[in-house]
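Quick one:
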Amino acid sequence: MTPLFASANDQARRLARELARYATTPLPLLLEGETGTGKSFLARRIHRRSRPGKPFVVVDCGAIPETLLPAELFGHTATAFTDAGRERKGWLALAKDGTLVLDRVDALSPASQAVLLRFLEEGRFFPLGAASPRPFSARVIALAGPGLGAKLEEGSFRSDLYHRLAGFHGQLPPLRQRREDILPHARAFLAKKAPGFSLAAEAEALLLAYPWPGNFRELEAVLHRAALRARGSVVGVGELELPLFSWDAVIPALAQRRASMEEASKLYALFVLAAEGGNVSRAAKVLGVSRRTLIRLRRGR
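Output:
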């Protein structure tokens, strides 16, 4: 069975195999993980494998006021209220027999959780103003941030709703726990979005040293900006603009490949600039160079 994604990390590989096993079944899935770990990406891949060509509907549960949720989910008839005008399909009807993704499901209020639970239990729903129910047959994939277990324990997330959503509960490890995937993903991203670009050895060391609180999403954003700033086809340390504490990895990388004095001096200037919070005037004063010289170094000239 082909995994849903490639990884060199044991925990991530096990998850990929488990998800591949359940992808083509109607079993509801709950994916938990930090922002940027790939929950939405996986939901779409599961949909393509299980229900290709069918509707794919994403609902941001955290963005909908409690009072509007029923109307958004169920829709309404033309006579539901005075200003209804015409029938409006809700997300459940739009999903049809495809996939309904409930993003940030852990952000729902207790009242909204009850609304969700009812149609999941009954497999049907009533549009506002309708006298008869409509069937619900979409595959449900719920996405949640880390800490869902704590919400279950404290009672702010209903256990009965959890069991309806978590036919399988997968937890996506953050990027800082799967460092073996950082460089392969970075290289693949550059090959796709910036063909012909590569990473300098020190830049790779910096990527490995940084904890990536924004996970894959942050990594891709950093690389995209760096490729746009790079003067040549090699993305260096200066283009990454990562925080000061991650620079410790650069010195061993420089020593390992015996970098020239000119290159080492330039990298030290960039380090001082990072240490001064990006303030060119202060960094230039520390280095004993002009602002113009430091700006030229920062631009790779």
